[in-house]
Amino acid sequence: MSLERFINQAVSSWMSNEGPHSEIVLSSRIRLARNLADYKFPSLLQPEKAAELTAKINESMQEKYDLELLTMEKLSTLQKRVLVEKHLISPYLSDASSYGAVLLSDTEDISIMINEEDHIRIQCLSPGLQLKETLKKASEIDDVIEAKLKYAFDEQRGYLTSCPTNVGTGLRASVMIHLPGLVLTQQMNRIIPAINQLGFVVRGIYGEGSEALGNIFQISNQLTLGKSEEDIVEDLLSIVHQIINHEESARESLSNMSSIHLEDKVFRSYGVLTNSRIIESKEAAQCLSDVRLGIDMGYIQNVSRCILNELMILTQPGFLQQYAGGTLRPEERDIRRAALIRERLKLEENC
Amino acid sequence: MKCQRCNERPATLHFTKTINGEKSEIYLCEKCAKEQGEEYMFSYHPDFSIGNLLGGLFNIESPFLSKPAQYPQQHALKCEHCQTTFQEFVNRGKFGCPHCYETFQEQLTPILKRLQNGNNVHKGKIPKRMGGTLHVKKEIEELRVKLQQAIAHEEFESAASIRDQIRSLEKSLLSKGGEL
């Protein structure tokens, strides 16, 4: 398989487009948790019921949407890992769910997980900051399913979910945001608690418990009860807009105060990426973040902006092994990673 | 406040221990808390699951003991559709089926308030097909807010038209057998 072709497959096509505020906000995501009324929640569901439910949900969607059904038991561990790295399925669906499946759209902007923690998890993704538009899209899918199947819904509690942290709207709205300016000026420690106080959570890029690789943070709502979907999204938007402003002014003051130092940092990282023969994922992520900042600041011009998103995913262990066609030891991975980044950047220069 | 164990670093964690109804409190820094992990039960293991954490949250007396709260008096309480007991729910942090929400309604309200920042009533989307008269009720509620705004801004003409809309919606609600 040629490198070019692999890249095309590795990056979801919705990701190669740009959206509003793409220079800071990488992507917007909406997730709706839904359950069917007449079935036990997935953790207690019998196999034949789970299969029946998967078939019903698949059927309800096919009339209006063209989606591909993948069942977890038919995928290899490595294939599942690649889907997790692309954020198309959750680690829970990949490892813990017994009868999990996922419905994916061609451009990978829609992913509907079946029998994860809840029967249905509708997930829609968009580039840049497009929470309202993405919510609308997810809500339309929700309507299509609801027209055919009976949801577990209660007047007081809203959409009933397996875990009470999701009950009500079942909505998790989140943005993936690149904040090198705020990290460099050491403002994140101050900002994260402030956001938490507003009922929103800040995490590192690969979900719960992970650190912020490559200065990419994920901000999402925590509360699902007592607020409408529109209000949750509106509140998140206003937080994100404020963070964008802070990030912009941090970048501006960095370039005013010590432009040459910032430029030096960017080009050193570019040097590392284009020359190293062994590179760990943490260092790669940091250098990629610097290079992306360099592109945003106009120091680097011959490299496309989506390189950060793309190489962040491509250099994850699952992808590297998929690309290599088998299991790799950690050191082999670091060698592969370095080679892949060099090749990819060379490709970029020749464009 | 300084850590009560090392008296050096600032205390960032507060533990409450309850043994036989006797409560003791201690303030520790993160390092000492880790070292005393066994005793204070707050583990930093990566496999510290959300279920465990929730189990702890439901422990109203001392939320950060990682051992789930014990509810002996509610042992008998069991969801008849999926056989989940309240204790099982607390241990796993997950319900067994949609009916659990009715079965454990009474116990759930304080838990939801805790998890959802004091909120326990859904204000969002209502399913189209099975929402019944809920849509109309929600619309009336929204119109009432608009009506108040219109009155506050002294826009009496639009207030009157909103009032008429509310009346006609109320009429249709009653005719569908709903309550105001």
Automatic annotation (TrEMBL), chain A:
Segments carrying motif RDXXRA motif of the pArg binding pocket involved in allosteric regulation = 333-338
Give start-end of the signal peptide.
Answer: none
**Gene Ontology CC annotations of this record:** extracellular space
Residues covered by the Phosphagen kinase C-terminal domain: 24-250
Q: Per the entry, what modulates this protein's activity?
A: Appears to be allosterically activated by the binding of pArg-containing polypeptides to the pArg-binding pocket localized in the C-terminal domain of McsB.
Reaction(s) catalysed by this chain's protein:
L-arginyl-[protein] + ATP = N(omega)-phospho-L-arginyl-[protein] + ADP + H(+)
Q: Where does ATP bind?
A: 27-31, 87, 121, 172-176, 203-208
- Write down the EC number: 2.7.14.1
What single Pfam family name could you report for this chain, choosing any that match?
Answer: ATP-gua_Ptrans
GO MF annotations in UniProt: ATP binding; creatine kinase activity; protein arginine kinase activity
| Keyword set, alphabetical order | Allosteric enzyme, ATP-binding, Kinase, Nucleotide-binding, Transferase
Which GO biological-process labels does this protein carry? phosphocreatine biosynthetic process
Q: Which Gene3D superfamilies match?
A: Glutamine synthetase/guanido kinase, catalytic domain (3.30.590.10)
**What's the family?**
Belongs to the ATP:guanido phosphotransferase family.
What is the role of the protein in this entry?
Catalyzes the specific phosphorylation of arginine residues in a large number of proteins. Is part of the bacterial stress response system. Protein arginine phosphorylation has a physiologically important role and is involved in the regulation of many critical cellular processes, such as protein homeostasis, motility, competence, and stringent and stress responses, by regulating gene expression and protein activity.
Task: Name it.
Answer: Protein-arginine kinase
Task: Give the species this sequence originates from.
Answer: Bacillus thermotolerans
| Lineage, opening ranks | Bacteria, Bacillati, Bacillota, Bacilli, Bacillales
UniProtKB/TrEMBL annotation, chain B:
| Signal sequence bounds | none
- Domain UVR, chain residue ranges per copy: 137-172
Q: Name one GO biological process term.
A: stress response to copper ion
* Pfam families to which the protein is assigned, alphabetical: UVR
Q: Which GO terms describe its molecular function?
A: cadmium ion binding; cobalt ion binding; copper ion binding; zinc ion binding
Task: State the name under which the record lists this protein.
Answer: Nucleotide excision repair protein, with UvrB/UvrC motif
User: What species is this protein from?
Assistant: Bacillus thermotolerans
